[in-house]
Specification:
Bound molecules: adenosine-5'-diphosphate, zinc ion
Radius of gyration: 27 Å
Number of domains: 4
Largest sheet: 7 strands, parallel
CATH class of the largest domain: Alpha Beta
Strand order of the largest sheet: 8-9-7-10-11-6-12
């Protein structure tokens, strides 16, 4: 009988395929790519060591098909990455083949030979003159604790207030480790954070540092992937996709801003890079460090249970006090185009003192919608259950859900041709920018959102301009806030926190508190004490007051008690089953069917099905159902059973997905 190998393909199927080896070939190592016949096509597959999923031959009980050719002499994925992929596929209920193929650079997925691809020479400049790092006492105490135990798995958490110098601590630990011929992976939540993090590491370290993220070209990705594998790169600073990079001698993983929801992939293979990092560290028996000024509740609970070891940085490195915070009740001081009179007054006085101002607003565009006051017309998207955002700069109405755009022309919008009175509803960055231009015509104002910062060059330009004092007022979204260290910002304004406070998502409050703390942390980092102004219609929210009075640490402790009482994560585990279809009833019935079949299990609870928050997107309806359990094992088992049930009953005529540990519920 011919020798058989198990092969996975880059397709949404939950099992591997058996192929026979050509005569004379005894076996193939796992991790090697092969070309195989699949249906009428040829396909690239990867050999795995044991069968995955239900045993299924590609050709029923008849003769097995033979592989066409073997592409690699050596495995392109080693055992540890294969192992990590297997774990991830099991945990996140995603087909192993697709997980494995995400861990392979795009060029190699198409079957090209590694040897045939010319490698670009390393273009990173290493200069020899580096500053020595000197830590302060607090940083130093943590440094000496962590380096005591470097050669084994441990999860450390560094909870350090904004500006306390987490990055310098990472650098010092990295320096120590790198002197022993090792490699380090640093995961950051956003591409935008990679250049500045690299710069800061390069200031001190004479090592080969590279970045890895989705906007690199395919050949650059491959270059980094293979040099990393050969041990030629010392530090990789990357976004979540870097958590599957191969390393020759990985000795430490750092996850910066571990609370950030961008670390979770929100589509297809819905993994959380922080959790992958922890599992990877455990499997490789190396330490992992999670850093944040505002750790996620999951992480805090793990510290509380002594699964993680927590260290704290309680002082700002530059010794400035944390900013003074002022709340403005917008029921009383009604903002005009987003700016209350108190905020206006404060901006004016900062400008007079030649200080920088940063204003945060969660949305881009001019307004959430346009409305006619006369006939009640509103700019609803005809394909989605949502409004079309008005972009004034491009004079377009734009649905941020399905991408539909149309040019705005005052006349043709609504039914009343005569007295039509079109007004904007809600604020976005453009509207705030316009108001600021009206109020402060002499100020140099810069808007920072994904409409203005469209590439890396623009990002660097904006950071440079800000740091060299060429900007007076910055107004922007998340992009403006995350991780930046602007020395001259002394006033921060948060235009509105209410959407977070009134959110249906049980994490709404946690996210709002993280946002407030992170945004506030941009103020007064270097010299003078900063100021923060928060506008809200709910100025007396008890937990927000706790946050402002006693800080994130006390806030989170109190908020965790409320989570516990409600048996919500991290005190329970959840998965979200989503369905979507052009027929509304189909997606609802699909979930009902599953619920009816499975709900007699007292170890899990089902909530829903209910329409998704945006129930219709691009003409497709979405429903969702939450599955929760007090025990992670039960939740995973149930998720697996549900998946198998769907596949067996061939309920697959509608689109569905399962999201383990979902971050965005609404
Ligand atoms: P965090 O990431 O904790 O908010 P940063 O790492 O950005 O804080 O540090 C805040 C500021 O303090 C930065 O300007 C940083 O360069 C400076 N800093 C922190 N630690 C040191 C150190 N040991 N030596 C020199 N500068 C430091
Ligand atoms: Zn739409």
């Amino acid at each position: 009988m011919a020798n058989i190998v198990n092969v996975v393909l880059d397709i949404p199927i939950y099992h591997s395929f058996d192929y026979s080896l050509p005569k004379g070939m005894q076996k193939l190592q796992s991790g090697v790519r092969v070309e195989v016949p699949f249906g009428k096509r040829k396909s690239i597959g990867l050999v795995i060591s044991k069968k995955n999923g239900a045993s299924l031959n590609n050709n029923d009980k008849f003769s097995l098909k033979e592989i066409i050719s073997v592409i690699d002499k050596e495995p392109i994925l080693d055992k540890s990455i294969m192992n990590l992929c297997e774990w991830s596929a099991d945990y996140y209920q995603y087909p192993l083949g697709q997980v494995i193929f995400t861990a392979i650079p795009p060029i190699l997925r198409k079957g090209r030979l590694i040897q045939s691809i010319k490698e670009k020479k390393n273009d990173c400049i290493i200069s020899n003159i580096k500053k020595p790092i000197k830590l302060n006492d607090e940083q130093n105490a943590i440094f000496s604790q962590i380096i005591k135990n470097l050669n084994k798995f441990k999860s450390y958490v560094i909870e350090g207030i904004t500006g306390s110098g987490k990055t310098e601590l990472y650098i010092k630990i990295s320096e120590y480790i790198l002197s022993q011929n090792s490699q380090i992976l640093i995961i950051v939540p956003e591409i935008n954070l990679t250049p500045q993090t690299v710069q800061r590491f390069q200031k001190y370290l004479n090592y080969n540092i590279e970045t890895y993220h989705s906007s690199l070209t395919e050949s650059k990705k491959l270059g980094i992937w293979s040099r990393c594998k050969k041990g030629e790169i010392d530090i990789v600073i990357g976004t979540r996709s870097s958590s599957f990079l191969p390393f020759k001698n990985l000795s430490l993983i750092i996850v910066d801003e571990e609370h950030d929801s961008s670390l979770k992939q929100q589509e297809k293979f819905r993994y959380h890079a922080r959790d992958i990092a922890i599992v990877r560290a455990m499997k490789s028996n190396i330490p992992v460090i999670l850093g944040s000024a505002t750790p996620s509740f999951e992480t805090l609970q793990n510290c509380h249970n002594n699964k993680f070891i927590k260290y704290e940085l309680t002082k700002r490195y530059h010794k400035t006090a944390l900013p003074k915070i002022m709340i403005i009740d917008t029921n009383i001081d009604e903002p005009i185009d987003g700016i209350s009179s108190e905020l206006e007054k404060n901006i004016k006085s900062e400008l007079k003192d030649k200080k920088q101002i940063l204003l945060y607003i969660g949305r881009r565009g001019f307004s959430h919608a346009l409305m006619c006051k006369n006939c009640d017309w509103i700019s609803k998207c005809h394909k989605c259950d949502s409004y079309m955002t008005y972009h004034d700069v491009s004079k377009t109405l734009w649905c941020h859900y399905c991408g539909y755009r149309k040019k705005f022309s005052q006349k043709k919008l609504c039914d009343c041709q005569e007295n039509c009175n079109i007004v904007p509803v809600g604020y976005g960055t453009e509207r705030i920018e316009r108001r600021l231009n009206d109020l402060f015509p002499d100020a140099r104002i810069m808007r920072v959102d994904s409409d203005t910062i469209t590439n890396n060059k623009k990002l660097i330009e904006f950071v440079d301009k800000t740091n060299t004092g060429k900007i007076d007022i910055l107004v922007g979204t998340q992009m403006l806030v995350k991780g930046h260290d602007f020395p001259n910002v002394s006033l921060v304004g948060i235009i509105d926190i209410d959407s977070g406070l009134f959110s249906l998502d049980f994490r709404g409050l946690e996210k709002t508190a993280q946002l407030i703390t992170q945004v506030s942390g941009r103020s007064g980092r270097h010299n003078v004490q900063g100021k923060v102004i928060i506008q809200t219609r709910k100025p007396n929210h008890h937990l927000i007051l706790e946050l402002l009075k006693n800080g994130y640490k006390n806030f989170s402790a109190k908020a965790l008690v409320e989570r516990k009482e409600a048996s919500l994560p991290p005190f329970s585990y959840i998965a979200l089953l989503r369905s979507s279809s052009y027929k509304k009833n189909d997606c609802q019935n699909f979930l009902e069917n599953i619920k009816n079949y499975f709900q007699n299990d007292s170890n899990v609870n089902f909530f829903g099905p209910a329409p998704a928050p945006i129930a219709k997107k691009n003409n497709k309806y979405s429903y969702q159902m939450m599955i929760s359990s007090l025990n992670r094992k039960f939740l995973l088992l149930k998720s697996y059973q549900i998946r198998e049930y769907i596949l067996k009953r061939k309920l697959n005529n509608i689109k569905w997905s399962i999201d383990i540990d979902p971050i965005d519920l609404y």
